[in-house]
Amino acid sequence: MSTDTAGSTPSMDRFESTDTPASKVRDTAEAMLADPDRAPTSAARFAGRMFAETRISPTEATALYGELTDGSQPAADAVESNATDGSDSEDAAGTTASEPAAVDASEGAGNARATDPFEDMASVDEYFEILADSGVYQQLGSIGDRHQCSGNHDFFGWYQTRDTAGRGDGEGRAFALGREFDAIRAKLDRVLYATINYTPLEWFADAWKPYEWGDSRRDFEGDKPTPGYGEIAAIAPFADIDLEDEVKQQRPDGEIPRERIEAALADYIDAFAELAGGREHVFALDSVGGAYVMIAPTATEPIFDTFDRADRFRIFDEFTDRVNEWLGDVDGRIVADSGLEGVFEADKINNTNRLYKAPLSPHSSLDGVVTPVDTADPEYCFTPFGDIDPELLDATHEWARGFTGDHRDAIGSIIDTLFEEHADAGDGWEATLRAWLDADREAEAQQDRPDRPDIDASEIPDDLEVTDEIDVIEAKIEAIDVADLVASTIGKAVDTDTEEGDGIRFDPSWRGSESNQSVFADSKKFADPDGGHGGGGALEFIALHRGIGDVRNPGDAPTGDAYWRAVNALREEGFDIPYFEGKGDRKHADVLRLFEEPESEEEKKRQLARSLFCTGDS
Question: Can you give the pTM of this predicted structure?
Answer without folding.
Answer: 0.66
